[in-house]
Amino acid sequence: MTDASITAPGKDSRPSATLLPSGEKRARLRKWRYFKDGVSRYGVGAGGIGVVFALGLIFVYLFYEVFPLLVPADVSVETRYTVPGDREADTLFLTLERYQELGVRFSSQGVATFFQADDGHIRRQIALPIPEGVAITSFAHGEARQRLVAYGLSDGRAIVGRHAYDLSYPDDVRYITPKVEFPLGEAPVVVDPQGSAIIQIAIQEGPQGFVLAALTEDNRLLMSRVRSTTNLFTGAVDIRRDAFQLPSPPGNTRQILVSGDHRSLFVADDLGQLHYYDISTPTQARRVDSGQVVPEGHQITAMDFLVGTLSIIVGGSDGSVSQWFLVRDDRNQHHLTRVREFQSHAAPITVITPELARKGFYVGDASGVLGIHYATSHRTLLKRQVTDGPIRDIGLSPVNQAMLVRDDADNMLLLDLRNPHPQVSWQALWSRVWYEGRSQPEFIWQSSGATDDFEPKFSLIPVTLGTLKAAFFAMLFATPLAIMGAIYTAYFMQRHLRTVVKPTVEIMEALPTVILGFLAGLWLAPFIESHLPAVFSILILMPLAMLVAGFAWTRMPMSVRQYVPLGMEILILVPVILLVGWLSIAASPLMEVLFFGGSMRQWLTEVGITYDQRNALVVGIAMGFAVIPTIFSIAEDAVFNVPKHLTQGSLALGATPWQTVVGVVLPTASPGIFAAVMMGFGRAVGETMIVLMATGNSPVINFNIFEGMRTLSANIAVELTETAVGSTHYRILFFSALVLLILTFVVNTAAEIIRQRLRQRYSNL
Amino acid sequence: MTLKNWFKSGSPWVWLNAGAIAISMIMVVGLLALIMVRGFSHFWPSPILMTDLTTHDGREMRIVGELSRSQVLPAQVLRDAGVPIDDDIQLVTRHLIKQGNRDVWGRDFVWYPELGMTQWTYPRDAMRLERREWGDFYGFPVRILEQGRTVAEGDQLWPELQQRIRRANDIFDEIRRIERREIGNVNHRMERVRLSERRLDLQLREGRITVAERDQAMADLAAQRLVLDQEYAVLQARLDALYKDVRRDTLVAQVMDGREWEIPMAQIIRAIQPNDMNVLSKTGLYLKQFWEFMSGYPREANTEGGIFPAIFGTVTMVFIMSIIVTPFGVLAAIYLREYARQGPLLRVIRISVYNLAGVPSIVFGVFGLGFFVYFMGGAIDRNFYPEALPSPTFGTPGLMWASFTLALLTLPVVIVATEEGLSRIPSTIRHGSLALGATKAETLWKVVVPLATPAMMTGLILAIARAAGEVAPLMLVGVVKLAPTLPIDGNFPFIHLERKIMHLGFHIFDVGFQSPNVEAAQPLVYATALTLVVLIVVLNLTAISIRNHLREKYRGESD
Questions:
Q1: Which B residues in the span 298-327 are in contact with A, Cβ-Cβ below 8 Å?
Q2: Which of 368-407 (B) contact A at CB < 8 A?
């Protein structure tokens, strides 16, 4: 340095003999250097900001994926035209096929009109084979996905049809050919052998064939179970029919519904009452329960099953919309129960159309208002005036993206429908929900089921509580060990030993959690199961043994004690701990024989405690193990950095070392220790592999240490790869990731701020 | 000192605190020791025991196998499980015997009570066969058949067996080479021809080429396909011949209940008689098996064989991640420390970045799956690989996305370490450089950054250690239980970023928890865990030593 400072001005003072490049060159060089400086400044700036931005993108993107859950449903009118087909006849039923290209209208003349949904142009008209001289007296449709319709005839017979669609691809373009099939043959099926007119009819296809329920003119309630088999060679349809007569319903019947499992039948009368018949054994069928489903003086104006035929949605002349299903009481009796009341409409309800694969439904009322509701989440997603007159029919596409609405004046509207995530509401995620078939509202997480009509149960409470449970037991195990260990290491331990101990504990932090999880699940869990008493005896004996060893040590002669200097107590304790541990484990079978009648596990079950092999105890130990280094490392720093003059002052005033710890060190370092615990908690909350491997992953709600749990993180790991991209389930899993992110971020930030404050405080002391 | 005074002084608390750290240390050391012992012992040939057991109902049976572990437990537990035990017995010892022969009995691990067992013997001719299917075989060799004809018995049997196993293994290696490499190569090229044809169709539909152009290109491709078909037929014929060849020999062996069992030589990988081996030959076998474990491919739903694809996948992924994370992490750290205006906003950013290190890794996995795989990958597929749709190329989890996700996950680690390194560089050095007229960039890149290189290395090593041990996010973004091909091979373009990979950590999870025969897979899981632990501990110790070294160095210079 000195060399340069002497020679440089020397060179400058003799410009003629300078070895420096010419001024122009130097200027160019300088320019180049400043250019590079600029490039570096902006390059690094761009890179740095880019990285910060990329990290921020995590928040943004998770929000972006969750956001559609909050978007309400919407409809917009695509086209409008008058009802296609025979205008003289009434429209009885309207629906769309899955490509939303064709609509179908069943009329009171027994004609199926297939038309193009966007302009009403008729593609095909099929007249059902109604025999000569017989009139149509009633109509019913089955569950939407079965595409079944039934016409009841004036001669006590019925005709059953199914609208179906053939796909072909001439020139690589999809072409749909509609048709009507007759699953029970083209000839009408006899429902009433006495031949009186059928004034109400209901149909449902089940695993054992078809059920037709009918009310005749003379108020007899009949039920037929029809099974058809098609001969493979001749193509002839063979029909087998069992007929039953049920007790006649009271009052004037408005509508009949039969459930898909053919176990229950519902009859609505004109006084606003709904009657429930148990038809599981048709010969003993009886009316079990009746209920007033709309207020007295009002009438049931529309009624239909939700998909799965477990719930009935009832609309009344007072504009009320409610959900009903059978709830089993203590005596195993089913009762019709009002489960939910939806936002009521201002005018009488005229039509209810359920969705095909979800528990949602669409409601039209007499003032032309369309309502979109969803049962599970108890939401009313939309109420909007779409026509001036009363809505008469709503035809819904199977994929919930378009709908047909017919009003009183035979105007047909094709509506574009956007209703992607009705299943989610704050209530559905965080409150008790009364799911179909359950006896009361509950918290349940069950995202998928075996059948199409399964009702997904998206309560985040079980997994959130599971997360807290796992974290709680982990912290219960880790906090005392880590903090006490940190105090000892930072304050009492000999310096050389500390340089070994601290890195060893910190290495634990880097240990892959998959290894901890694997050991917990495959080694620790069976071990604990077969050595349960040992766990408890260790818990009790270990501290006692330490104290005894400590006191015994003070009684040792000085000549022995001098071998282990102060700050090395740990060397004496290691053999003691190993000995106690080994004794406890070796004596464990004996203890089981002596105190627990041979098997502690069995004993637990007998006193009413459920025991899972992979339980919270195992998770607590394994995850505690993962959390200890986090807490230890930060707490140790906090204790170690307590200014020495404070402790020395305390000691000089005559306090014992422990009194100094309690009176001076801990109060000073407590924010740091608190921050350490928070950091540990943050880690325990987000840990995935350990809980995934060391619990049974069942989303139960309890704080029993011998049962498992499912945590948010494990839930994501298990389910995210199995779900459809963009589905509600997918977005809920993203939401739970967001919850985890925010939770840990807040906890960590708070801990970090506390630590920074502490650092300042130390520097001021 | 009396007990009362002792308590008053607070010493008991000190002892309890010492106990806490002692327990922690014992747990760490114990855990590492457990993995070490179980992992390393996996390769040691254990003796084959033989004993006769008289069961409770008076049946006699002979047991041949390896002792897996023993247990003492209250008799009541077994009674509850339906095992009949005399009432006066309180505690029973039982042994888990690995008797192998899954094809003979269906169960390869069986618990037997010690009660009623005769003295264990270790017959010298007891044999263990390592097989490609059905797990290990335990029994006594009887004779060797060549196409149904006895060729060796008695004393010549063992050398003859070894020689024929070697022959069968050589043929098998050849078969595997043809299947993996040559047929794999043909398949790869055929797939490219197929994609080229589809691309031509697409281009024609979009009007970018004429019909004539397409037909000409199609003819070219058809010719290529013909050549490939021929190549394939040749390979297939060779394979058929080899398969026929390898099925020539059969070993007949006696199992523990006296029955004779035929084992095709093609199934046998190795035959050993551990009771007849000395320490030296056992050590040799140990090393050989250890090497096979590290370099071999998995067999039998990953429960046997080696873990080479998992090691390779882990290393490749971590390597790509390092390439991404190092420059970006360093740039961000330099920006935060050197260029950004220090103020409250920067403090918020810094704390946020630091805290991302504490965010659960699964959250990064979710982000990776949503953003990288579906969002970016989907866009790449639509724009660059339309011919492969609807089967996704990059729009599905794979190596590249796994590396990206881990890079994001480890960015905070690198940033923190680098920033710390930069902040430790004494400002005198910086001032000296600036005083000599250097620009800020020159000071930075020629003085400060080189001095901080060790810190960056530390950060990188810590990042690698973290990445190598992460499993949860990888389950979502690209790791599978069994990848048919390695991400790097001899087929163009050599590095296949879109392929799925195997991973050590996931291997542990999968084999330990998803495999049908957990008992048989356990030793292998321990060995895999050991590999991973060693890898990570070594990386961490390196990082720690670099850091300590660095601290010492700068402490000296700044004083």
A1: 327
A2: 369-371, 374-375
Classify domain A463-722 at the CATH topology level: MetI-like fold (1.10.3720)
CB contact under 8 A, B367 and A602: no
- Give the closest residue to B477 by CA, choosing from A712, A514, A721, A738: A721
Looking at residue B2, the DSSP 8-state letter turns out to be -
DSSP result, B508-535: HHHHHHH-S-HHHHHHHHHHHHHHHHHH
Measured distance CA(B60)–CA(B505) in Å, rounded: 45
Q: How far is B7 from chain A, CA to nearest CA, in Å?
A: 9
- Residue-wise pLDDT for B496-544, tens only, equals 888 888 999 999 998 888 877 778 888 888 999 999 988 888 888 887 7
Pick the last residue of a domain from B124, B157, B186. Answer: B124
Identify whether residues B392 and B420 lie together within a single domain.
yes
Q: How far apart are CA B79 and CA A91, in angstroms?
A: 72
Mutation target vs A (from B29, B356, B359, B479; most A CBs, 10 A cutoff): B359
Q: How far is B9 from chain A (nearest CA, A)?
A: 6
Does residue B11 sit within a domain? no
For chains A and B, CB pairs below 8 A equal: 346
Q: Let me know: does B114 contact B95? Beta carbons within 8 Å.
A: yes
The answer to whether the CB atoms of B442 and A33 lie below 8 A apart is yes
pLDDT digits (tens, 9 = 90+) for A165-197: 998 888 778 899 999 988 888 888 888 888 888
> Residue B11 is nearest to which of A542, A658, A662, comparing CB atoms?
A658
- B156 and B88 belong to one structural domain: no
Instruction: Please count the residues of chain A.
Output: 765
Residue A305: which H helix or E strand, with range?
strand A300-305
The CA-atom distances, in angstroms, between B376 and each of B196, B325, B367 are 23, 19, 12
pLDDT digits (tens, 9 = 90+) for B224-240: 889 999 989 999 999 99
CA-to-CA distance for A239 and A582, rounded, in angstroms?
76
One-letter amino acid identity for A238? D
Mutating which of A511, A548, A715 best tests the B interface, going by the most B Cβ atoms within 10 A? A511
CATH for A78-122+294-420 (2.130.10.10, 1.10.260.40, 3.40.630.30, 3.40.190.10): 2.130.10.10
> Crossing angle, helix A495-510 and helix B11-41, to 10 degrees?
50
| pTM strictly above 0.90 | no
Kindly tell me the burial class for residue B124, based on how many C-beta atoms sit within 10 Å of its own C-beta (0-12, 13-18, 19 or more): exposed
Q: Cα(A255)–Cα(A302) distance, rounded to whole angstroms?
A: 9
Whether residue B220 is found in the same domain as residue B342: no
Does residue B432 belong to the interface with chain A, where contact is any CB pair within 8 Å? yes
The answer to whether the CB of A221 falls within 8 A of the CB of A247 is yes
Instruction: Phi first, then psi: give them for residue A441, nearest 5 degrees.
Output: -65, 140
Q: Domain span at residue B99?
A: 49-124
B525 touches chain A (CB under 8 A): yes
Nearest CA in chain B to A720: B476
Looking at the fold, whether B345 and B433 belong to one and the same domain comes out as yes
The alpha-carbon gap from A538 to the nearest alpha carbon of chain B, in Å, equals 12
Based on the fold, state whether residues B399 and B344 are members of the same structural domain.
yes
Kindly state whether residue B288 falls inside one of the protein's structural domains.
Answer: no
- The minimum CA-CA distance between A637 and chain B, rounded to whole Å, is 15
For residue B250, being part of any structural domain is answered with yes
CA-CA-CA-CA torsion sign (A289, A294, A297, A298): negative
Query: Structurally, how many domains does chain B consist of?
Result: 3
Which residues have a Cβ under 8 Å from the Cβ of B29 and sit 6 or more positions away?
A: A504
ipTM of the complex: 0.88
Nearest chain B residue to A736, by CA? B363
Q: According to the model, what pLDDT value does residue A475 have?
A: 94
Q: What is the DSSP letter of B183?
A: I
Residue range(s) occupied by CATH 2.130.10.10 in chain A: 78-122+294-420
